[in-house]
Amino acid sequence: MAAGFGAAREPDSGDPHRPEGLGGGEWRQALSGLMNRGQIQELLEGGERFGRGVVAGLVDVGGTWQCPSSLQGAELQELEQAALLIGLQQKHLTRLSNPRWLKAPLSARGGRDLWTVEIPPELLP
C-alpha cells in the first residue's frame, strides 16, 4: 500500500506540524516518550521534504481491530506510543509495518478512504 506523508493543518491550530484529528500536543506527548525535542523536529521537517500531494513511501497494512474499553496500564500505554495517540479505547486501529521510502516522490492526488495509485517499477525501493 502506498502512503502519503505530511501533516495537515487544522483550521484553528496555527501549527502546520500538528496532524489532523489530534488535539493540542497529544502527538508530541506520545512522541516525547520515544524521542527528544530535536529528533521530533527532525522527523517533522523530514516529512515535509517531499511537499504535499505526493506518495513518498510504502507500508504493509495488517489487520484492523477495535481497542477494548477495558484495556489499561502498560499494555494501553505501549499501544498509545505505537499509535502516537492517547485515549485509544473503542477506537479502530490498523497495524502498519515495514515502512520504506520510494526512490523519488510520485505526484498523486489523494482521495477519501482507499484509492489506487500506479507506482512505476523504477520508483520502488
Report on this model:
It contains three helices and three strands, in the order E-H-H-E-H-E. It has one domain. It has helices spanning 26-32, 37-47, 73-83; strands at 2-3, 54-66, 92-107. With 125 residues, it is of the alpha+beta class. It is 23% helix and 25% strand. The longest helix has 11 residues, at 37-47.
What gross morphology would you assign?
globular
What is the share of helical residues?
A: 10-25%
Question: On the 0-100 scale, what is the average pLDDT?
Answer: 77
Secondary-structure element order, as H and E? EHHEHE
* Largest sheet geometry: 3 strands, antiparallel
Layout: helices, strands, pairs:
Layout (H helix, E strand, L loop, with lengths): L1 E2 L22 H7 L4 H11 L6 E13 L6 H11 L8 E16 L18
Antiparallel strand pairs: 1-2, 2-3
Index terms:
3 helices, alpha+beta, three-stranded antiparallel sheet, globular, 3 strands, single chain, disordered N terminus, 125 residues
Q: How do you describe this structure in short?
A:
The protein has 125 residues and is an alpha+beta fold. The protein contains 3 helices and 3 strands; from the N terminus they run βααβαβ.
